[in-house]
Amino acid sequence: MKVTDILRVKGSTLYTVPPDQPLMQAVQTMASLDIGSLVVMEHGDLAGMLTFREVIQAIVGNGGAVGTRIVRTVMDDSPLTCTPATDIDEVRRMMLAQHARYMPVLDRRTLMGVISFYDVAKTVVDSQDFENRMLKAYIRDWPEKDEKSG
Q1: Can you list the positions of beta strands (E) in the chain?
Q2: Closest by alpha carbon to 37, among 117, 123, 110?
């Protein structure tokens, strides 16, 4: 299974933010949309990711307040990325190794979407459930043993 399979099911809704946007405005967007990340885009290219992890670190570092910081000062400017053709097992390994919860999907320089660790886990569980159902159906339909052969 490939990343493109996740994107096909998930859809292509993208939430982006410019790097010079006030952090407070980005946090309000994340809260109102109930999302854990925003893709930071600059001049049509991926500039970074802003996730709740960076937001929390910024708030703690600023004495418990968002303050007047801008997105660029807190974003992850080198996020882990993958392509639509990347295998799901490779994505799982990459996300686990880097403790990444969100991963932009790029086709060359074009942003195709963002997948989350939840998306990957759900895809794996759905695939295993399907395989399990198919195996159970196969076993149920197993031909009876011929009495003569033994």
Answers
A1: 16-17, 37-42, 45-51, 102-107, 110-116
A2: 117
- DSSP H stretches of helix in 11-116: 23-33, 52-61, 88-98
Q: Which CATH number fits the domain that encloses residue 118?
A: 3.10.580.10
Interstrand relation of 37-42 and 16-17 (parallel, antiparallel or unpaired): parallel
Q: Is residue 147 part of a domain?
A: no
Decide: helix, strand or coil at residue 111. strand
How far apart CA 93 and CA 72 sit, in angstroms, is 28
Domain count, the chain: 1
pLDDT digits (tens, 9 = 90+) for 88-139: 999 999 999 999 999 999 999 999 999 999 998 888 777 767 677 777 777 7
What are the tens digits of pLDDT across the range 63-100?
999 999 999 999 999 999 999 999 999 999 999 999 99
For the chain, give me the number of helices (H) and strands (E)?
5, 5
Which one-letter amino acid corresponds to residue 125?
Answer: V
Which residue type is seen at 69? R
Whether pTM > 0.70 for this model: the answer is yes
> How far is the C-alpha of 98 from the C-alpha of 53, rounded, in Å?
13
